[in-house]
Amino acid sequence: xxxxxxxxxxxxxxxxxxxxxxxxxxxxxxxxxxxxxxxxxxxxxxxxxxxxxxxxxxxxxxxxxxxxxxxxxxxxxxxxxxxxxxxxxxxxxxxxxxxxxxxxxxxxxxxxxxxxxxxxxxxxxxxxxxxxxxxxxxxxxxxxxxxxxxxx
Length: 152
Description:
Layout lengths: L7 E2 L4 E9 L3 E8 L4 E8 L9 H16 L9 E7 L2 E7 L3 E3 H6 L6 H20 L13 E3 L3
């Protein structure tokens, strides 16, 4: 269990409920926005990065990426809702996508019909175009990182 699970942020506005995933520098949590009664995702820098000599640079990059991601408005890109720094640590709040990953879908069936595969590839391509046009590079595009909304 991540040591941040259970932590409250923004004077009780958010609670980190569970770890969703970790990358090289960041960690993502399923969280609760108490005022709205909504499930959200909160991404932050891993605690191990807080003592690095280049932490200030990591924090600046994290915030710059959050600003660019907030400009990426597209139905297939998760929406940024909030950004804040608390106790010197940056946090990015995004919509929670209920559903499952493309990886899970692919591995739950013997094959994916070609029209369905083309449908997903087109949506992914359109989203990546918006991301790239806003100066971002998604460095980890893979079926396990692509969420399918319920009903798709």
